Amino acid sequence: MSLRQKWDQLGVAAYNIVLTFVPSHTVRLGALRLWGASIGEGSTISRGTTLFDIDKIVIGRDCTIGFRCLLDARGGITLGDNVVLASDTHIITGRHLVDSDTFEAVFEAVSVDSFAWVASRSTIVGGVSIGRGAVVGACSLVRTDVPAMQVVAGVPAVRRGERTSALDYSAKYRRLFY
Fold this sequence. Notes:
Shape: globular
GO cellular component, one term: cytosol
Keywords: Repeat, Transferase
Number of domains: 1
Oligomer: single chain
Strand content: 25-35%
GO molecular function: O-acyltransferase activity
Protein name: Acetyltransferase
Largest sheet: 7 strands, mixed
Strand order of the largest sheet: 2-5-8-13-16-18-19
Pfam family, one: Hexapep_2
């Protein structure tokens, strides 16, 4: 194992075992940046969120990530500006090929464009892009791309409507000690 791999594993362990529970946004975001995450100004990640492959996470400005989310970035995760991932949201970029004799793993990136809102307890799987201003309803499973401004919900997530907002807001939200 290379020194870089050891450093990355140390970061994942330190963050997920201890630092994710520290009631300071500054400490948590500073640690993630130390281990290679790119996090824009004004963004926040609430306590209890678990991250894998920290150096493959790119988060834009003024994003809000809720409590107890899972960001499995082994395939890469990119969030635009003003993205909201509500509590208990999972982004999982890895999967196994069920017919593989060797239980082969596949990793595919996930991107969530600016002003998108992913409601609580939703899951987004690898290879999916969520368009600008799109909304994913609570408890949804997103397995295919979601176009800009589209509202989807369900298991699997299907089109439920279209968003008409001018998207003239900031998703920045930071509660003290959260």
